[in-house]
Amino acid sequence: MRIEQLRYILTVYEEKSISRAAKKLFMSQPSLSNAISSLEKELGASLFERGRDGVTATEFGMQIIQKARKVLGEVDDIMAISYNEVANQVATLQVLCVPLFCNWLIIETMFEMKKRFPKIDLVVVEQKNIDMINGLADTSAFVGILGIGVKYRETYEQHMKDADLHFTPLFANGICAFVNKNHALADKEYITLKDLEKETIITYDDFRYNTVLNGNSFANISHPDGSQSIYLLNDSENIKNLVASNHGIAVLPNSFAINNVFVQMGLVKVRQIADLNESLIVGVISRKGREYSIPECGFLDCMKKIARKYKHTNLYQFVPVPEAR
User: Fold this and answer.
1) How far is CA 171 from CA 54, 103, 187, 239, in A?
2) pTM of the entire predicted model
3) Does the pLDDT at position 253 exceed 60?
4) How far is Cα 228 from Cα 96, in angstroms, rounded to an integer?
5) Residue 156, class by beta-carbon neighbours within 10 Å (0-12 exposed, 13-18 middle, 19+ buried)?
6) Angle, to 10 degrees, between the axis of helix 59-86 and the axis of helix 3-15?
7) CA–CA distance from 92 to each of 46, 59, 113, 296 (Å)?
8) SS3 of 204, please?
9) Which helix (DSSP H) or strand (DSSP E) does residue 8 occupy?
10) How far apart are CA 144 and CA 152, in angstroms?
11) Which of 64, 132, 172, 233 has its Cα between 20 and 30 A from that of 48?
């Protein structure tokens, strides 16, 4: 029996749903179901039963849940004492991250971390997905944050397995177009891939090659006059400035609108791409079997808190993480 299993059953009880509990816990539904089944097997009895009103605790399960509450309360008290003890310690944490999420997820996590651990310095190293997977074991970074298109998930998860890494999905994000307010497409409620065929497309280099964009017709076109039709960049500010100056349309996850001053000012419009059936899975990779320090656990907790905040706003097309095949 593990402490996290007690948290799992308590969350399922509170949510009255395996799927909702899995989303809240930032894990897949099969993984949560397997963890609960394993605990039930160890205890020798069922903890939950399913009915019209969702998942409810059995009489035996209710007894375990009441005990779990007390145990977790004590554990949380212990962790609070530990947090207070290390809050003033001086240390440096290194994190790898694709540039796509540094403008909001990492920045806001850093702000939250400073509240909890004011003397912890956070070093963020921007890397592409594949470089992160291949190099995590050779760096002092304890985790990497990457984004994977659903189409390439199986391939990447095999790379991670080969590198002895563990992947934990955080959320999935829809993909949309960022259009200058003066562009003709800004007046449309939504746009299509056909609309984009004659446009200059702006996106992250790594993002294009790790999503379904790599296979779409507009990703490989050339304009008749020989001008460049694709800008592949690795800097979010350059992408924002190009769109704001009407030099192209950015195709990126909807969360790119978070903390985007041009979107906030109305200079850039966010439009759904109606026939682009793709989402980006954002998650954390770490070395298998690695135990986290309290500040490292704090960083992950802060990041999950930030992701949860934006998921609950429902403004940025956060979608359920597709199950692995």
Assistant:
1) 23, 17, 30, 23
2) 0.73
3) yes
4) 31
5) buried
6) 120
7) 44, 48, 12, 10
8) strand
9) helix 3-15
10) 18
11) 172
Please write the tens of the pLDDT for every residue from 265-277.
999 999 989 888 7
pLDDT score recorded for residue 196: 87
Instruction: Quickly state the pLDDT bin for 322 (edges 50, 70, 90).
Output: low
Residue 305 in contact with residue 26, Cβ under 8 Å?
Answer: no
- Please state, in angstroms and rounded to a whole number, the distance separating the CA atoms of residues 319 and 175: 11
Choose among 129, 252, 266, 125: nearest CA to 201: 252
* Average pLDDT along the chain: 84
CA distances from 9 to 22, 76, 120, 191 (A): 11, 16, 33, 43
SS3 259: coil
pLDDT tens track for 124-155: 999 988 899 988 878 889 999 998 888 888 88
234: CB partners within 8 A, 6+ apart: 99, 126, 204, 205, 206
Give CA separation, 118 vs 30, 85, 89, 97, 106, in Å: 38, 12, 9, 22, 16
Q: Which two tokens stand for residue 308?
A: 């949860």
Return the half-sphere exposure (C-beta side, CA atoms, 13 A cut-off) of residue 173.
28
SS3 category, 208: helix
What is the C-alpha radius of gyration for the chain, rounded to an integer number of angstroms? 22
Q: At which residue do the structure tokens 């909702």 appear?
A: 20
Torsion angle defined by CA atoms of residues 154, 144, 304 and 19, in that order, rounded to the nearest 10 degrees: 10
- DSSP letters for 94-138: EEEE-GGGIIIIIHHHHHHHHHH-TTEEEEEEE--HHHHHHHGGG
